[in-house]
Amino acid sequence: MRISIAKRSASSAKDASNKAALPSPSSSASSRYPFTVEVSDNATVDDLKAAIASNVKSMYPDRQRLTFGDKKTVLESGDSLSKYGVSNDDTVFIKDLGPQIGWQTVFYIEYLGPIIFHYIVYNFPRIFYGVNFEHSEIQRRVYLLVMAHFVKRELETAFVHRFSHGTMPLMNVFKNSFHYHMLSGLNLAYWVYAPASGQGTALAAKLGNPLLMAIFTGVFLFAELSNLSTHITLRNLRPPGTRVRRIPHGYGFDMVSCPNYLFESLAWVAIAAMTRNLAAVLFLIVSSGQMYMWAIKKHKQYRREFPDYPKSRKAMIPLIV
């Protein structure tokens, strides 16, 4: 069947439900919009994206966002065109999402920044503070826990996560990296490892209560292991090489839709309580706020996608929200 590919405008939305006035077949190889492509009657969205990419070389499939009809329904990869009612001589609208970068690569970049910053600030204090000094027990403990957290995230990226979307806009990597590199990286490291709480200082003595350190370390480790467990549950929901979505069940998921965000926030609560440092509190607030928004969005998506989704579940915080 022949599909017209157009860019949506004010007038095109009005005419979207009508059969397209198709240009001649000779124009189908042109990169000018609209143009037509030929796909089989049982074609999928991926087939259509591949056909578009063969006409416009710069528009590789991950760069395309396809919509159809007055409601601007997004055509999801993996679905058949017939699922959306796309038929011969219809018009599908395309949006250029811009240059893309793989989600896995983005995660590697995001989590590498804090590892580098914490390593440098902790091990080379003269560069940042102008003096060498001995770190306190609380500083050593936080350093090990923070490094363990981000190394864990890198390993999860390599061996656990299966991504529902292959790419994201290239420019977003800079915004996302600022959050991690600056707030949980340089800013957190600079203030937590400062001489003011080094070995022999009054602040180090105040923070170094062995019982409290043991409690907060225990909370942190519990949260990290619980977070890992939820990531494994999510991985097992999606067979390799697919974008299958199912309702998650099991540890954490019977309470909230996004227990991975809940447990990660709890880990940073432990760090903030252990250090009682404003930089740690700032990162806790910003990161938890962002995860809360993601949780609300995902919770609504689950409810919209699955009619039998458990009504008792909250988004991120059990019994509350």
Provide key terms for this protein:
Ubiquitin-like (UB roll); 3-oxo-5a-steroid 4- dehydrogenase; alpha+beta; 321 residues; 7 strands; EC 1.3.1.93; oxidoreductase; five-stranded mixed sheet; elongated; 2 domains; 10 helices
How would you explain this protein's 3D organization?
It is an enzyme of class 1 (oxidoreductase). This is 3-oxo-5a-steroid 4- dehydrogenase. Its EC number is 1.3.1.93. Keywords: Oxidoreductase. With 321 residues, the chain is of the alpha+beta class. It folds into two domains: 2-97, Ubiquitin-like (UB roll) (Roll), CATH 3.10.20; 101-305, no CATH class. The protein has ten helices and seven strands. It has helices at 10-15, 45-55, 103-123, 125-129, 137-159, 172-192, 202-207, 210-237, 259-275, 278-305, and strands at residues 2-6, 35-38, 64-68, 73-74, 91-96, 100-102, 167-169. The strands form two sheets. It has a five-stranded mixed sheet, with helices on one face.
